[in-house]
Structure formats: structure tokens, C-alpha cells
Design goal:
With about 240 residues, the chain is mostly helical. The chain has one domain (about 5-115, about 125-240). Helices cover about 75% and strands about 0% of the residues. The protein contains ten helices and no strands. It has helices spanning about 5-20, 25-35, 40-65, 70-90, 95-115, 125-145, 150-160, 165-185, 200-215, 225-240. Helix 2 (about 25-35) crosses helix 5.
Length: about 240
């Protein structure tokens, strides 16, 4: 399948926007690929591969800025990585896949349009809750082909477990590790089947994440791009639900 310039521009902008807040952008890539009628098998593998590069660069940027807290990450990834591996090994009906993906895209839209502002003092992390959240997010990350950051970020902020910059750093690391687990699960079950020309998408993802993570760390405003991407996600979710 060959893609036009619009497809490539959208991939670049998605990587730039998501990396600015410590995300890999899988939900955005999946939305774009859904608009261009990419098959679920190709979608999952491609989104997870792109996540590795984009989230990895975003993590490095925030780690370099001194925002990463390993003690905050560990309780979430203890169960998320093995559950991501298991989720990726499961075969899912294309119709069910589209419905689940559509729901997660709506969550992504809400996450972007309603940016939770951290207020008040930080609270101690609840370890049992973090373990349970990590397991659930890991499973759906592998099953659908996302990193789980679109859910983890608002959880960390709303429960006052981290501030905005710490959330971005932890989310990037969480996405990176879950994506690796998902890729391993796919590789040992149905095999990796990314879209043709995945190397071009990786290059675009790297370029976008270098720009986005840098400016995100420096408080770059991405409000206009946020609305554009939210519109794309909305159209994609509608297409998934009704077509």
C-alpha cells in the first residue's frame, strides 16, 4: 500500500505533538491508519514500532531534564510488561478491535482537549493500585497496539502522584517498555507485519519526536496542533464505530 504526502505529514505531526507530553503517539498513528484503511494486523505492529522510537526520544529528553522518577515507574511496569506481552499474543476479531480502538481514541480526544492541571501537594503512591492499573493498561496496550500513556498520564495527575513534567517522563518510559513487550508478543505469535515503507514512518517519527520533546520540555504551546489532531481522531473513531 502506498501513502500520499498527507499521510506522512500527519504521522510527523502526531509524533511531534504526542512526544511533547511524553507520549509515543500510538493512538494517533492508529487513527491515521484507520482513515487510510490499513488492516488491523499492520496497524498494531506499525504503531508499536513507532512508539519505540518516539517514546524513547521523549523519555530521553525528559530524563535529561531531571524529571524522571524511577520509583514512580516501577510499580506500574512490574505487571504491565508481561500483560502487554500476553495481550499482543491474542487474536482479536476485526470488528471487536475497531470498537475497542474507537473507545480508546475517544479517551485520547478527551485527554488532549481536557488537560488536567496538577494542583495541591503530591500524594504518596498507592502500590497495590499502581500494580493493578499497570496490569490493565499493559494488557490493552498489547491487545490494541498502544503504549497506555493516554490513560496513565491523567491517572497520575488526577491522583496527585506526579506533576506534569514527572508524568511526561514516567509515561514515556511506560510506553517504551510496554511497546517492547507488545512487539515481542506479536513476534512470537502471528509475527510482525508492519505497513510497507515502515522505515519512512520511523524516520518521520524520529524527526517529529525530536522537535516535540524538545519544545515540550521547554513549555512549547501545541494547542492549535492539539485541536487539529483531536479532529482527526474524532473522524477516525466515527469511521471505526459506523463503518
Amino acid at each position: 500500500m502506498e501513502f500520499g504526502i498527507i499521510f506522512y505529514v500527519m504521522i510527523f505531526l502526531t509524533a511531534m505533538l504526542y512526544s511533547s507530553v511524553g507520549h509515543g503517539g500510538a493512538s494517533g498513528y492508529l487513527a491515521i491508519m484507520a482513515l487510510f484503511a490499513v488492516t488491523p494486523e499492520n496497524m498494531r505492529a506499525s504503531a508499536l514500532i513507532l512508539n519505540l522510537f518516539v517514546a524513547g526520544i521523549a523519555f530521553y529528553a525528559y530524563f535529561k531534564g531531571g524529571y524522571f522518577r524511577a520509583k514512580l515507574l516501577l510499580p506500574f511496569v512490574v505487571l504491565s510488561i508481561p500483560f502487554s506481552f500476553l495481550g499482543a499474543r491474542l487474536e482479536i476479531n476485526p470488528s471487536v478491535y475497531k470498537i475497542i480502538l474507537g473507545i480508546f481514541l475517544l479517551i485520547a480526544i478527551g485527554r488532549m482537549l481536557f488537560t488536567a492541571k496538577h494542583q495541591g501537594e503530591l500524594k504518596p503512591l498507592n502500590i497495590p493500585s499502581a500494580l493493578a492499573i499497570g496490569a490493565v493498561l499493559g494488557f490493552f496496550s498489547g491487545l490494541i497496539g498502544i503504549g497506555g500513556g493516554i490513560i496513565l498520564s491523567p491517572v497520575l495527575l488526577l491522583l496527585h502522584w506526579a506533576n506534569m513534567k514527572e508524568t511526561a517522563a514516567v509515561s514515556a518510559a511506560f510506553i517504551l517498555l510496554n511497546s517492547a513487550g507488545g512487539i515481542l508478543g506479536l513476534a512470537t505469535s502471528e509475527g510482525l507485519q508492519p505497513v510497507n515503507g515502515i522505515s519512512i514512518l520511523i524516520a518521520l517519527g524520529i524527526g517529529g519526536s525530536l522537535v516535540g520533546s524538545y519544545f515540550g520540555r521547554e513549555k512549547f504551546s501545541t494547542i492549535k496542533l492539539t485541536y487539529v489532531l483531536a479532529t482527526v481522531l474524532l473522524f477516525a473513531s466515527i469511521k471505526l464505530f459506523y463503518f
